[in-house]
Write a structure and sequence with these properties.
This protein is α/β, with parallel strands linked by helices. It is built from nine helices and eleven strands. The chain is 33% helix and 22% strand.
Length: 251
């Protein structure tokens, strides 16, 4: 059986230079893009119930652009003016630069890591006297809070947005040769939207250990995994799989 249709559980790339399009041309694939989950913002009213005062904190840890967006959205809704003295600790340079949408970048104290939590913690340890706010989703890894606790650094974890299942009812002909998932929340969304789904010959790809675990825990067969040393990205993992699959299934 030839692989012809792939569903990627992410938004369609905005640029035509995406490696997904190169792969589609290389293997003659039809690739659809459809997020299985969506972000539901926590309202100012909901947030007030948490009784967390943003201005009690002297530093903020941002692990994603989504967290940045929802932090400043909430501050605007609650009419909170973030002081110039606030320090920002970002997981990566791109996340740090994204702050420019909301603050005068050159006037703030901004620190950014190389994309790893360990590197981020090196910066945080140098500022251990700060009171950190950690904005996140209702679905998140506890790696950073656990490390902060271990280092005895004062912090507050706060939920600014929720991850919910998308409505995929318009996908009536749900038949794909490969389903590609990037979040553990994608799997409950699959079950909710397609309760009669049977895997059979459908291949399932998962990115990251949490998504991999969600696939296995749901009783599904995992066929493609990333990141791996030989395939650090999902497109590389798919390319490797397709190359081997086509070699072994020549008619």
């Amino acid at each position: 059986m030839k692989i012809k249709k792939i569903l990627i559980s992410q938004p369609k790339p905005e640029t035509e230079k995406s490696p997904y399009f190169d792969m589609a041309e290389k293997y003659g694939l039809n690739i659809d893009f459809r997020p299985f989950i969506q972000i539901d913002p926590v309202s100012a009213k909901e947030y007030r119930q948490s009784k967390i005062n943003i201005l009690d904190h002297t530093a903020i840890i941002f692990t994603s652009k989504t967290a940045v967006t929802h932090f400043f959205r909430l501050c605007k809704e609650m009419k909170i003016t973030v002081p110039d003295s606030m320090k920002y600790f970002c997981i990566s340079e791109s996340t740090a630069f994204f702050l420019q949408k909301y603050i005068v970048y050159r006037k703030r104290k901004i620190f950014y890591a190389n994309g790893t939590v360990n590197d981020l913690m090196d910066y945080i340890k140098k500022h251990s006297e700060e009171f950190f706010l950690v904005p996140c989703s209702d679905v998140h890894k506890d790696e950073i809070p656990s490390l902060l606790e271990k280092l005895r650094i004062k912090f507050t974890k706060t939920i600014l947005y929720k991850t919910i299942s998308s409505n995929l009812s318009d996908l009536k002909d749900f038949h794909y040769d490969i389903l590609v998932f990037f979040s553990p929340k994608d799997i409950p969304s699959l079950k909710k939207n397609f309760p009669k789904f049977k895997q059979r010959d459908t291949k399932i790809a998962a990115f990251g250990p949490a998504t991999t675990k969600a696939v296995i825990d749901a009783g599904l067969r995992l066929d493609i995994q990333a990141p791996l040393p030989e395939a650090p990205s999902m497109t590389m993992a798919l390319d490797l799989f397709l190359k081997n699959y086509n070699k072994n299934n020549k008619k």
